[in-house]
Automatic annotation (TrEMBL):
Keyword set includes Transmembrane: no
Keywords: Cytoplasm, Kinase, Transferase
Molecular functions per Gene Ontology: kinase activity
Protein name, per record: ATP-NAD kinase
Classification via InterPro entries: AcoX-like, AcoX_kinase, ATP-NAD_kinase_N, NAD/diacylglycerol_kinase_sf, NADK
Amino acid sequence: MPQPAATVGIIANPASGRDLRRLTASAGLYSSTDKASAIQRLLAAFGACGIAGVLLPTDMTGIAAAVLKASQGPGAREQHWPALQLLDLPLTQTVADTRLAARRMVEAGVAMIAVLGGDGTHKAVAAEAGDVPLLTLSTGTNNAFPELREATSAGLAGGLLASGRIPPSLGLRRNKRLLVKVPEQGLCEWALVEVAVSPQPFIGARALSRSDDLAEVFACFAEPHAIGLSALCGLWQPVSRQDPHGAWVRLDASADQALLAPLAPGLLQGCGISASGTLMPGIPQRLSLASGTLALDGEREIEFAAHDTPTITLDAQGPLTVDVEAVLAHAARHHLLAVPRGHRLHPATPC
């Protein structure tokens, strides 16, 4: 029996790629026009894979409005875009908008959520998504969790998976995460990439981009080509997404050895490394500082004092994501994107 046509969600954070690091470093700008264009490319790919509907939240920057206008044009009809439904949600222009949109999509029973944003956006969606898979697209500043890829090919992979043509065991990847607990504050948060410990006592402007503001970095995974705080582990003690363990480094300006690391786009700093090691799953790690702040995926979120006992624990219960490369490799081996004569996209089919 054929499966019913799937509905998917798309969440594009209007604020991603537009933060303070445009002033403190040389980060580029990912505009609302760019995001609307990427969504249109996703819709074309989803339509080619037979996705029936797409849920898209409204926003105050014109992303949804531009996509809605394009969906009513001849190009969308020719490409058989999925039916577009706008989620008209109360907007606060904070991360609460992202979390509410994700929650509504899960309640609506979407097969997948495509996320356009940086590490923080993906963390917010993952917090609400449960086991609904995420299709990750990078539009933020220091993007380690969402990999940089073109929306069309990513959309084909996501569409094939959401339409049931790819076995979940092949096309989905369970990610690691870092659990951050401060019992005295009743806090239990988590990060998808890294947790940085800073001696700065206040959250302040949130972003960390100076070596003097760093004491330790704990990472789920750390790739040598990464930009951001995880690069400290990636260029010193690299660990892959597939490895069961993580990594950590401790910083000290007076250390004998210093690592030249890209803490933000165009911002290279020498960081003294005094110690490093492997982060094993399930073992809570105490901090070297008695007080300071914790940055989760690049932004300070938690202040802790001398009477607090924060711990950081690696586990394997992070979100499910679409493995784009694995899906498209399987599609190529089995010719899943082949269309028969008579199909609307076959070159011999009359217009």
